[in-house]
Specification:
Blueprint lengths: L7 E7 L3 E8 L2 E9 L9 E10 L4 E5 L6 E4 L7 H13 L31 E8 L8 E3 L4 E2 L3 E5 L4 E3 L6 H14 L4 E5 L8 H21 L7 E4 L4 H9 L6 E4 L2 H4 L1
Parallel strand pairs: 1-14, 11-12
Antiparallel strand pairs: 1-2, 2-3, 4-5, 4-7, 4-13, 5-6, 7-8, 9-10, 10-12
């Protein structure tokens, strides 16, 4: 029996080394994704990394995240709040019982876009970075100092206080409504990007998504500890979960998946 018209369905095929995800509308393929299933140094993973070498000529640094090849961090990828984040990390490592949230954190001045990396980082410094590009061929991963955690409806931006919203949401009343909901529930010094898929979602749905991502961030803070570095402190959701999170919405009728463990 074929799939009837007017349906939207998501098909997930789990292989040994890759995942295939297909979106079908009214019986026709409209979108297809193929992803490798390696979870090592995946985009979105967050590490406590050690600065290995400053590269003044490139205005960049090599940092050790545990990969066989050092990760590359350019000055422009440090993010404007790198001094604040570095202070938070240093305080967490020196006093594990304190600095459990960002509510009372005093911000440092943002760095200049035209600055010099050797004035910001030093060799052996422990910094918080996130994988932004996985390793390829002879190159290690590329990392950023701008940390974010994605949920289904929102993206959490620690060490910020801004509420931003997708430009694809055009209705001004809806934009105001969404911002007011997020403002009601988000903690101080936590920024939020409201994703396009959040449009017309109920307050409770947005609240739950925000709380779930906040729990992941709070666990990340707990993991910023110890004396052995580099250290992974947060993992991006596995590829199946993250892809379905980004692609699936309430307009779909079904998900078909060939792997019972992943389904559960």
């Amino acid at each position: 029996m074929g799939i009837k018209d007017n349906r939207k369905d998501l098909f997930v095929n789990i292989g040994q080394s890759e995942i295939e995800i297909a979106l079908q509308e009214e019986g026709s393929l409209v979108e297809f994704h193929r992803e490798t299933t390696s979870n090592e140094f995946a985009v979105g993973d967050i590490y406590l990394a050690r600065v290995k070498k400053i590269l003044p000529g490139l205005n960049a640094a090599f940092v050790d995240v545990g990969h066989e090849k050092d990760a590359f961090l350019h000055y422009l990828d440090l993010g404007p709040r790198i001094k604040t984040i570095s202070k938070f990390v240093k305080n967490r490592l020196q006093s594990n019982s304190k600095f459990k949230n960002l509510d009372t954190l005093n911000y440092e001045n943002e760095i200049s876009k035209n600055g010099n990396i050797k004035e910001i980082l030093s060799v052996n410094q422990i910094i918080l970075v996130q994988i932004m590009k996985e390793s390829i061929s002879t190159k290690g991963p590329r990392v950023t100092g701008e940390i974010s955690l994605a949920g289904r409806f929102i993206v959490l931006i620690p060490f910020s206080d801004q509420i931003m919203i997708s430009q694809k949401i055009k209705n001004e009343k809806e934009r105001i409504r969404l911002k007011e909901i997020i403002r009601k529930f988000k903690p101080k010094n936590i920024g939020v990007i409201i994703r396009t898929i959040a449009e017309n979602q109920r307050e409770e749905e947005l609240k739950v998504d925000l709380q779930n991502v906040l729990e992941r961030w709070n666990q990340t803070i707990v993991n910023i500890s110890g004396i052995k570095f580099p250290k992974k402190v947060a993992s991006e959701l596995n590829r199946i979960t993250s892809l379905i999170r980004d692609l699936f919405n309430d307009t779909f009728d079904s998900i078909y998946i060939n792997d019972e463990e992943s389904y559960n």
